[in-house]
UniProtKB/TrEMBL annotation:
The keyword Transferase applies. InterPro entries: Glyco_trans_4-like_N, Glycosyltransferase_grp1. It comes from Georgenia faecalis. The keyword Methyltransferase does not apply. Pfam families: Glyco_trans_1_4 (PF13692), Glyco_transf_4 (PF13439). This is D-inositol 3-phosphate glycosyltransferase. Residues 27-166 form the Glycosyltransferase subfamily 4-like N-terminal domain. Keywords: Glycosyltransferase, Transferase.
Length: 370
């Protein structure tokens, strides 16, 4: 009988888009996959890898939604899974609180980005850090994609230190596929591209404001926004009287959009290691990003342009104009992208699965860093 693996997330699109190479690796190792998340437009995509069980609730922390999700997780915890992976903070926290000890000993928490960064201040980030620290030992392993997140977990003291810490090289981008991507013939030219969840953290409205100001000097510049999320109605309303603003709800052909784009805008307030920035580096498209742990890791040394967290839309517009007129230099970036290629990710993720399964039910005395 094939070993069973339960994969938990808040929404389906996280599982379908963040790390699809993971599911190929798990299946190659004989795992029978079951995904559990809130249903969305990406749910059918998960059927390529395994079964799907819907979770009630989303990324909201409203009590009613959390209660429904907790009830669903309790039901899932009644089954004897051989391996469990959790990879969004809300679901990861609930699972590590609710799951029985024998399932926690088979659980790996894959951290695509803690909800508090190195420079974050205030009550909210402090609460996030405290919760993550308290729950860190309640899983067989913690695996991070960000070097800053890995450093934070490694620095936890004594009893709060995770049992095992592993570092993953991003989320497994097929760099060759993006390097060879053909530009989308129907795309507007020239255009800036935003690609990601349409929410306050990703801040697509800053991209709209920046391009709108940049059009004073470059009236032919357009903006393509690829993504889904709570800000979609706001963007649709803005697009009604802005013919230069194109909305693309979802696509499996991000490479073609990146290859056609003049510049990628990444204005996220908080990122782990953003997949779309790695993809832009592979394509060779210039990147302008807000400073966060992801942009620091990927774009340091001139691989892209990093703007301060407090930069205004006017400052973003001037930088985009600099990319268009060549005053903001752009250098080849494929070398940086290769470090996050699927060829590096697959063996690292396979070792992670093997390590968790080998130690299931036991408490390793020390952390293992890879």
């Amino acid at each position: 009988m094939a070993p069973t693996m339960l994969v938990l997330s808040a929404v389906s699109r996280s599982l379908a888009l963040q790390s699809p190479a993971s599911w190929d690796v798990a299946r190659d190792r004989g795992m029978e996959l079951t995904f559990a998340a809130a249903e969305d437009a990406w749910t059918p995509e998960l059927a390529r890898w395994g079964a799907f069980l819907p979770l009630r609730g989303t990324r909201s922390v409203r009590p009613a939604g959390l209660a429904r999700m907790a009830a669903d997780l309790r039901r899932l915890a009644e089954r004897d899974w051989d391996l469990v992976q959790v990879q969004t903070p809300i679901v990861a926290a609930l699972w590590r609180v609710l799951a029985p000890a024998h399932l926690r000993d088979r659980t790996v928490y894959v951290v695509h980005g803690l909800h508090a960064q190195r420079d974050d201040r205030g009550v909210g980030p402090a609460a996030v850090r405290a919760l993550e620290a308290l729950l860190a030992p309640r899983a067989a392993a913690v695996a991070t994609v960000s070097v800053e997140d890995a450093a934070w977990f490694r620095a936890l003291p004594g009893l709060l230190h995770p049992r095992t810490i592993r570092s993953l090289p991003g989320a497994g981008v097929d760099v060759s596929r993006f390097r060879d991507a053909e530009p989308l013939a129907s795309a507007p030219r020239p255009f800036a591209l935003f690609c990601g969840d349409l929410n306050a953290n990703k801040d697509p409205l800053l991209a709209v404001a920046a391009v709108e100001r940049c059009r004073g000097a470059h009236p032919d510049l357009g903006l393509v926004v690829v993504g889904e999320g709570p800000l979609a109605p706001v963007l649709a309303e803005l697009a009604e009287d802005r013919p230069w603003l194109t909305l693309v709800p979802r696509t499996l052909d991000v490479g073609a959009w990146l290859a056609a784009a003049t510049v990628l805008l990444s204005p996220s307030r908080r990122e782990g290691v953003p997949r779309v920035v790695i993809e832009a580096l592979a394509v060779g498209t210039p990147v302008v990003a807000r400073e966060n742990r992801g942009s620091r890791e990927l774009l340091v040394g001139g691989a892209g342009t990093i703007l301060p967290a407090g930069a205004t839309a006017e400052e973003w517009a001037r930088t985009v104009a600099g990319v268009l007129d060549g005053s903001v230099p752009h250098r080849p970036t494929i070398g940086r992208a290769w470090a996050y290629d699927v060829s590096a990710f697959r063996p690292a993720y396979a070792r992670l699965l093997d390590a968790v399964r080998a130690t299931a039910g036991a408490r390793p005395p020390t952390a293992t860093d890879v």
